[in-house]
């Protein structure tokens, strides 16, 4: 691996090299040594991510691999450091947060001249650890490792995960915040992304009125990651470029959220410190997947009261977060109308894309206004009849036009019957029959005009509706087994989730509704931030 640590080189770093919790001013990062673990052990690694770093999967077997990717052994070129950011948590300004348990090892410049930052999560304390320990437990590390790769394979913008290593040491955690802490196995995930910069990096500099560094940081971010916005690479960056930068952040964030809503992902902690400037899904904590469609569902027990981060609120929260970023960028773009126009781009991008996705999910090739009414009735129907989101859309693809236009109502319902957690009552049956009839009529027009047939339609739908997602209980089963020393389920899920849209009949048992035992079990439907 070839390192070229641009972030460190181009931005001021903390002059204090001592590692103790503190406020860090006038710099954006602090050098820090990861902890040396005596016996780190590799549990899983991702071949495709290794390839981004010019590493072959043969390296996974080397004893140094687990030492390197737990932070215990530093390679030449690695310059470990933690960065300084702030954030709005649950709607309130929280001041300095920072990489409390994330340590960047540096930026790999690969043989295609792409830059990939390596970041260890759980490799020990940093100046930003506040009162916490800087470590991560196995359960949350398994969840982050599996989900970031699952999301990538679903086509959702996300940070990646190279490796999952057991540290060999125990970590004390109060999982339910009920005064009963337990010792749990510690682990480190090596995350990989072009950048881990968050909205909160801009917010902390702006909140502290450190406008010089805000400008330097924004300029550097643009030069490293938004170089396509520059007309003159060496020229001064002006207000117009800052605005184009912010518009792009608004648009990529909209794309990310439209994908989350498409696949049924609930992030759980959409604080501004967990929002990536590149529009990547970042910081997998108490996230979850919708099973029975419920717009009000949040997997995060810490958010159970206000449900700020519930499924259906995510598009609105992203906009709120972007408005905080707009505030932070105001010193560089001192024009409220311009900032507002960028936020309008978020709305427009999100609305257009989500309409397109929602149409394609039910098999229409493009969005047309005459489908709005049919589409708008669907969420309520799905919610009231307790339909499993993933299963419903895959079963809907199985209808033929003949079936949809047939008079045989019993048979018509049976195609989607397996998607429901409860048997449908008569009224629900009737509502579904009405919806399906109308659906068939609109499809008929599409078939005639666009020249589509049942087979084509199924292909279109199955390309956007995953058959397999990382259901909350699936991750929990893999975690329980790994805690007992058996990591085979983690490997099986990695295989399964590589091709989420493919039929994969050998994995058919995972195309099933959430089992009853998982409905109220910790880790399956309720997660705390303790990780
Ligand atoms: P999160 O809610 O996981 O996004 O974390 C919010 C803030 O708390 C970030 O600054 C994290 O780095 C920090 N944090 C979370 N867990 C720990 C930990 N175990 N040790 C140190 N800092 C932590
Ligand atoms: Mg975070």
Description:
With 531 residues, the chain is of the alpha+beta class. The protein is built from 17 helices and eleven strands. The protein folds into four domains: 6-198, no CATH class; 200-360, no CATH class; 371-462, no CATH class; 472-518, no CATH class. It has helices at 6-10, 47-52, 63-68, 138-154, 199-207, 211-225, 239-263, 314-329, 336-361, 372-384, 389-396, 401-404, 409-414, 426-450, 454-462, 472-483, 488-498; strands at residues 29-31, 41-45, 81-83, 86-89, 92-96, 102-109, 115-121, 160-173, 182-193, 265-266, 288-289. It has a five-stranded antiparallel beta sheet. A two-stranded antiparallel sheet has the order 1-3. Strand 8 and strand 9 (182-193) form a beta hairpin. The protein starts with 5 loop residues before the first helix and ends in a 33-residue tail after the last helix. Adenosine monophosphate is lined by residues 97-101, 128-129, 132-135, 269, 273-274, 283, 285, 529. Adenosine monophosphate (AMP) binds at residues 97-101, 128-129, 132-135, 269, 273-274, 283, 285, 529.
């Amino acid at each position: 691996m070839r390192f070229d640590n641009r972030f460190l080189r181009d931005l001021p770093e903390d002059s204090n090299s001592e590692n103790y919790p503190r406020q860090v001013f006038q710099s954006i990062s602090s050098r820090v040594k990861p902890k040396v673990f005596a016996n780190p052990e590799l549990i899983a690694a991702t071949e495709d991510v290794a390839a981004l770093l010019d590493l072959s999967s043969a390296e996974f077997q080397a004893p140094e691999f687990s030492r390197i990717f737990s932070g215990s052994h530093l390679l030449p070129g690695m310059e470990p450091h933690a960065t300084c950011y702030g954030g709005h948590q649950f709607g309130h300004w929280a001041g300095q947060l920072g990489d409390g348990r994330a340590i960047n090892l540096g930026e790999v410049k690969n043989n295609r001249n792409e830059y990939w930052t390596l970041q260890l999560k759980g490799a020990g304390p940093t100046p930003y650890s506040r009162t916490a320990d800087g470590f991560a437990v196995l359960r949350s590390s398994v969840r982050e490792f599996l989900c970031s790769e699952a999301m990538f394979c679903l086509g959702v913008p996300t940070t990646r995960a190279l490796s999952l290593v057991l540290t060999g040491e125990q970590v004390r955690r109060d999982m339910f915040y009920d005064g009963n802490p337990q010792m749990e196995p510690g682990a480190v995930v090596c995350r990989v992304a072009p950048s881990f910069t968050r909205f909160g990096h801009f917010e902390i500099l702006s909140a502290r009125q450190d406008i010089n560094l805000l400008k330097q940081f924004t300029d550097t971010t643009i030069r490293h990651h938004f170089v396509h916005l520059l007309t003159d690479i060496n020229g001064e960056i002006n207000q117009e470029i800052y605005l184009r930068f912010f518009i792009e952040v608004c648009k990529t964030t909209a794309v990310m959220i439209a994908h989350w809503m498409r696949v049924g992902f609930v992030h759980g902690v959409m604080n501004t410190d967990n929002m990536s400037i590149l529009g990547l899904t970042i910081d997998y904590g108490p996230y979850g997947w919708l099973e029975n469609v419920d717009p009000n569902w949040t997997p995060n027990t810490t958010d159970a009261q206000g449900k700020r981060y519930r499924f259906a609120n995510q598009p609105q929260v992203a906009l709120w977060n972007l408005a905080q970023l707009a505030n932070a960028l105001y010193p560089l773009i001192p024009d409220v109308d311009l900032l507002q126009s960028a936020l309008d781009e978020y709305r427009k991008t999100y609305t257009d894309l989500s309409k397109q996705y929602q149409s394609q999910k039910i098999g229409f090739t493009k969005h047309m206004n005459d489908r709005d009414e049919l589409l708008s009735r669907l969420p309520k129907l799905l919610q009231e009849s307790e339909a499993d989101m993933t299963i419903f859309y895959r079963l809907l693809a199985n209808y033929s036009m003949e079936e949809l236009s047939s008079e045989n109502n019993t048979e018509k319902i049976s195609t989607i019957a397996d998607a429901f957690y409860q048997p449908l009552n008569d009224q629900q049956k009737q509502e579904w029959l009405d919806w399906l009839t109308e659906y068939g009529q609109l499809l008929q027009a599409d078939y005639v005009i666009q020249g589509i047939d049942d087979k084509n339609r199924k292909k279109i739908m199955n390309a956007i509706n995953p058959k397999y997602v990382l259901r909350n209980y699936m991750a929990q089963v893999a975690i329980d087994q790994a805690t007992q020393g058996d990591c085979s389920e983690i490997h099986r899920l990695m295989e399964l989730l590589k091709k989420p849209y493919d039929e994969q009949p050998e994995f058919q048992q995972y195309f099933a509704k959430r089992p009853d035992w998982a409905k109220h079990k910790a880790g399956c439907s309720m997660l705390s931030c303790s990780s």
